[in-house]
Fold these 2 entries.
Entry 1:
Amino acid sequence: MTRTNRQWLLASRPDGEVKVENFAWREQAVPEPRDGEFLLRTIYLSLDPTNRAWMNAADTYLPAIPLGEVMRGIGIGIVEESRHPGFSAGDLVQGLPGWQTYALSDGTGYSKLPPAPVPLEAHFALLGHIGLTAHYGLLEIGEPKQGETLVVSAAAGAVGSLVGQIGKLKGCRVVGIAGGEKKCAWIRDDLRFDAAIDYRNENVFESLRKHCPQGIDIYFDNVGGPILDAVLPLINNHARIPLCGMISQYNSTRPSPGPSNLAMLIIRRARMQGFIILDHLANAAPAVRDLVTWYAEGKLRYRTEMVEGIENAPEALLKLFSGQNTGKLLVKVSGEP
Ligand code: NDP
């Protein structure tokens, strides 16, 4: 019997907010690998804010997805058949299978999962592009020191929740900014952040002033926009601002006005630096070791928001923009081996 590959295609480009109608469903026969290729069955699909940017007509750090193509997506899968010298049937791999139940690949952009005593889903919620982003962005760009004050936005999300915990491990005072009291309670009471600010219901600038009496040494920015502007007047001399993401801007249809408090970078001799974690994956082994060790010691926790079934991927993607996810948003596409 022929097996079916179930896929979501990019049908149209979003005008502002992404909509379910931007995607089209297709079913076709599962392809056969040719020489130099393998066939992968997708197990977990990672839904990421960057998916929204990839849907635009303009290239980002990756080329724009052509209309009518399978939606690009990061995933974990198992190699079912291989005619590739570097991959064997049964290998668990991560890469860009896209929003489909099966993917053919010549191996480009794929790597075997690092051996780590963690659940499979943790390769995205704790390790992979999420954990490495938190680790690299905070430790290499943020350069936290004992006693410094770290502020992180989207603090109850996948990256932000790890950043705050790693900041605590490094001896920082950690203040998280998140939407809603439930998320704030989670990061404050369960993850042991020193304070949480509900940006939907509080004046962020006033609350930051209250919770950061010594000023802000590091701002790990996941959101950009008005929150970045509220942070800037409170930064200390030689503050570091890892620019990780700007989710508040991803649905904008026109360029938004720049932060009006940018001159604070000069006054405070501060540094703001963007990064893309893809550039650093090749040297990730020490970071993976750190993350696994902290997890094993009970010092670093993650949370997943699991959506069942690839048919629900478009609807689920919207959760990132309405803040309905806590921790790492994943789609379970098929069963674990
Ligand atoms: P999250 O799990 O943090 O989910 C996104 C969260 O952003 C939502 O849950 C929501 O939480 C918050 N949010 C949405 N809209 C707004 C808004 N307008 N203002 C403030 N907060 C908002 O996603 P990730 O952890 O995967 O990603 C976090 C950031 O990191 C993103 O900007 C992403 O693009 C970036 N990133 C960058 C990488 C790099 O290499 N530079 C790699 C991976 C991620 P709430 O309820 O609190 O609003």
Entry 2:
Amino acid sequence: MEEKKIILTGDRPTGRLHLGHYVGSLRRRVELQESGEYDEIYILVADDQALTDNADNPGKIRDNIINVALDYLSAGLNPEKTTICIQSALPALHALTFYYMNMVTTARLSRNPTVKAEMQLRGFADEGLPAGFFTYPVSQTADITAFDATVVPVGEDQLPMLEQAREIVTRFNHTYGETLVMPKAMIPENEMQRRLPGVDGKAKMSKSLGNCIYLSDDAATVKKQVNGRMFTDPQHLRIEDPGHIEGNVVFTYLDAFSTQEDFAEFLPDYNNLEEMKEHYRRGGLGDGTCKKFLIKVLEKTLQPIREERAKWEKDIDAVYDILRQGTERAREKTDATLARVREAMRIDYFKDRTIVREWEKMLKEAKQ
Ligand code: TRP
């Protein structure tokens, strides 16, 4: 097999994407897309995986496929360079999942820390654990290997999935011969990209906490979230008081988004973020000024995304066609992998009549 550089990653379509997704993965994907270093790039809208913990609410998944697609396109994923496709319309993934189930033990699946944590979060510990949810790492292995992915850009929480995928690949190749491409995780480079806190300072942006800034939020909502809800330093009561940077969400977001040019453009009192932080620590810099600057910085990212989204929203037919064509291309790719897998397992019975001759020979020998 020739070693191409192939990227596969994906998202569960359970809601609109927010700044956490942007900082943690979306921005990176666009960079990777523009780097020109990859032969093929696929982004999977993982609706089947989303169903493993939303089986009773398929409408939510159905609705959010378009939200996620709009977020992708408006953030800069270009369907000419990146194939966007829908998991449930790729039957090879289901077949591969079934074969890979035999390449992993339930004991091993039970040890997956991400699945364990998600189980707790969803109350499956008490209610009973859906087998589909329990085995979704196997299905994710199918996603990854079906595209011959060499590189899988994901958040840190997905490392156990990649570890499991690599084990399954090793086991499969050992059992049936070199067939599957070994994938590698690519995780965010620094702490800041790994986890952007919610505006309230809670560990993670989450819809149920209402602490998100969505890529599709309008300017007034962004302003309200920053001015009204963003956590700063509770001890910084008067402007003259010295302030803390650690745990101060305004500065965490500035770390993630602000550039030197932003200072020249919006806050020329400082040359860079370090100078601004220094003043805040010393005292004399008010939260209001910091938040005003942050809003401008965020808008520099969000406004173009918002404008792009508005354009796409006027032509949902076009988005549909992008998904349809992307899925078609993905179907060819994944079907080819399944064919290779079936051949390796020697279960490609109806490809030609090779097996008829084998059966005849075996039956004859049995009589002797
Ligand atoms: N489990 C991933 C998440 O929750 C989404 C996903 C599904 C994925 N299939 C994938 C990620 C394949 C990488 C590769 O974020």
